[in-house]
Amino acid sequence: MRFYVINGEDAPNSLEKRMIARPAHLERIKALQSEGRLILAGPYPAIDNPDPGPAGFSGSLIVAEFASLEAAQSWAEADPYVISGVFSKVTVKPFKKVLPN
Question: How many CB atoms are closer than 10 A to CB 70?
């Protein structure tokens, strides 16, 4: 298993779609966590505030273990945020974890 970064960029005005898809999105991330594969995950607030309110979010980051780049890409493509149109763009890249060890 290797680490991969999944970076999703929100589509304009996608906050409502995000809130609707959020439970299913979190369920998938919690599955990675329960499998011991999740390093970190979270959204980018659109403004400098942990609760951006109606300003919403500009995207999300997930760092997790997958068997291959293709497996990480397939997992990302099946995410509810992708399917429901929250993310306008998703980038998946290999990641080398250095710290903490």
Answer: 10
